[in-house]
Every structure is written in structure tokens, then in C-alpha cells.
Amino acid sequence: MILVGEMRDRWCAAWRRRRRPVISNGDGRAVAVEVLLATHPIRNHIRHEKLQNIISEITLGKRQGMVSLEDSLARLVKQGMISVEDARVRSARPDELESLLRG
Fold first, then answer.
1. CA-CA distance, 1 to 100, in Å (whole number)?
2. Rounded to an integer, what distance in angstroms lies between the CA atom of residue 10 and that of residue 49?
3. pLDDT tens for residues 8-40?
4. Phi then psi dihedrals of residue 83, to 5 deg
5. What gap in Å lies between CA 2 and CA 76, rounded to an integer?
6. What is the rounded CA–CA span in Å between residue 74 and residue 50?
7. 46-54: long-range contacts (C-beta < 8 A, 24 or more apart)?
């Protein structure tokens, strides 16, 4: 996906504000990732600045390999790499995180 100029800058700034992927667990660091593939719907949402729709597309794109930050945080908690509290602090959607941890 190619973003140019101001559009790219706005996209990057907005996405960075809600992403804090590196977590220190006291003994080291754990990295929570979010995988976003440049599908046609994702590109369209970015082009039209509908960033709020991207999370839904990530959820729909799990079969294609997309991973939400909440999925990644829940996996790290279940593996014992980070605490539930650390995951909650970094999650942009704590309700979704709680649901994943229960399930």
C-alpha cells in the first residue's frame, strides 16, 4: 500500500497514538503485534479516513492472517509473558481484551 504526503502522515500519527506494543515484564520485554494487510477494504478506509472501521476489517481478516492488538495481548497473557494489568493498559479496546481472556 502506498500512502503519500499528508494522508500518510495523518495515518501514521493516528495509528501510533493508539499503539503501544512493547511491554516490559520486569525480566525483559514482550512485543505485542498488530498485523494489518493492505486489502482493498483497508485501503479504502484509509483513503476515506475511516480509521474507526479498520478494527472491524482486522477481525474479518483473521483468516487472511490479520491479528488485532488485543489478540496479541491476550496471547502474551495466556503464555505468562505479561500480566493482565499490563495488557489492559496497552489495549485500545479493553472490553475486547477481557472477552478474549475469558474465552
1. 30
2. 9
3. 666 666 655 555 555 555 567 788 888 889 899
4. -85, 160
5. 31
6. 26
7. 46/1, 46/3, 46/7, 46/11, 47/7, 49/7, 49/10, 51/11, 51/14, 51/15
Domain count, the chain: 1
Q: Distance between the two ends of the chain, CA-based, in angstroms?
A: 34
In this structure, what C-alpha cell is assigned to residue 33?
A: 503485534
Could you tell me the residue range of the domain that residue 36 belongs to?
5-102
Tell me 2's DSSP state: -
pLDDT digits (tens, 9 = 90+) for 39-89: 999 888 888 878 788 889 999 999 999 999 999 999 999 999 899 998 998
User: pTM for this structure?
Assistant: 0.73
CATH of residue 49's domain is 3.40.50.300
